[in-house]
Amino acid sequence: MGKDSKMSTDPPKHEMVYFPPPSQLVSMEIPVGGDIGDEVHLVDQVLLFTSGEGKATIAGKDQAVKATDVVVVPAGTQHQFINTSKTEPLELITIYSPAEHDPQTVHKTKEEGDEEEDNGKDEAPEWSQQSKDKNEKDGLAKESGGPYKNGDDGRHEKS
């Protein structure tokens, strides 16, 4: 999964909205032609799309997303969200449980967010980091990939 050369270089914006233990609510805007980048978190993530349209790739499976759609990304599941609109941003609210980012974080650009994470400036609160480590040690989340051994790819579809 790579970045398409036709995609916008305008990065998504992140702003922490609510962050009591053990979860974190974040508002996000993905610009026209933009994406969040191919990611895996060691925490669960729930996304509620509030406007725009896009493509969600969860554990290698694509699906269209639009306002009012909800997507669940279990811990350890590879995911990517792309704004497919030619005219408006893809806006969403996402909940990380436990928290994924420093509660004071505001990223004006994806590059800024990546740099802060790489430099240890956007670390989850200590209580959240302990939960991440415990999840990984207990086999509840993987550093990469998905689906899980039970076949759950985050879409919860019955075959």
From TrEMBL:
Biased composition (Basic and acidic residues): 1-16, 99-111, 131-141, 150-159
Positions of region (Disordered): 1-20, 94-159
Residue ranges of every copy of the Cupin type-2 domain listed in the record: 28-96
Source taxon at top rank: Eukaryota
SUPFAM superfamilies, sorted: RmlC-like cupins
Record-linked InterPro entries: Cupin_2, Flavonoid_dioxygenase-like, RmlC-like_jellyroll, RmlC_Cupin_sf
CDD domains: cupin_Bh2720-like
Gene3D superfamilies given in the database record: Jelly Rolls (2.60.120.10)
Name this polypeptide is given: Cupin type-2 domain-containing protein
Source organism (scientific name): Zymoseptoria tritici (strain ST99CH_3D7)
